[in-house]
Write a structure and sequence with these properties.
- 19% of the residues are buried.
- The chain has one domain.
- It is an alpha+beta fold.
- The chain has helices at residues 29-34, 64-87, 101-110, 128-136, and strands at residues 10-12, 15-19, 24-28, 36-40, 43-47, 55-60, 141-147.
Amino acid sequence: MGSQFGHVAIDIDGTVYSRAHEEYVEIDRHTYFYGGTVHLTNGSIRTAGNLWRDNVGLVLRVSPAEKAKMKAELQRRVAVDREFKRAHPNSSTYSIVNNSCSSNVADVLESIGILAHDPRWFPTPVTPAELDAVVETSKRLATKNYYPKQADQ
């Protein structure tokens, strides 16, 4: 289930915003990578983290105003999803077409002028590979960080 094509999340100052199938979450970077408790709308879960696969972090140059705009929009999206989950605990707003991990990140990046999908194709769905390939060509790319999977995962 999920992430057969990869996964995309966005980290702003150590807080990771991640649209999963079940719910949109806001967690700290350490928990995202290494595991721990994730607080959901209707409870908590323990996760083993995301180092069961290789991860690449693209660090982008953004202004303080752009960072604040992205953070506010991501927090809004988490809040909207949580409101839905409170009303419909056994449902999800996830959609491969327009509410996936990668479409959410693409929307937020494009709101501050960073192209995050290939303009030769329809804007949705955006795959993790497409987002990665397009953002890697941006003049805003500062560096790439590699987080290799852990052997014991």
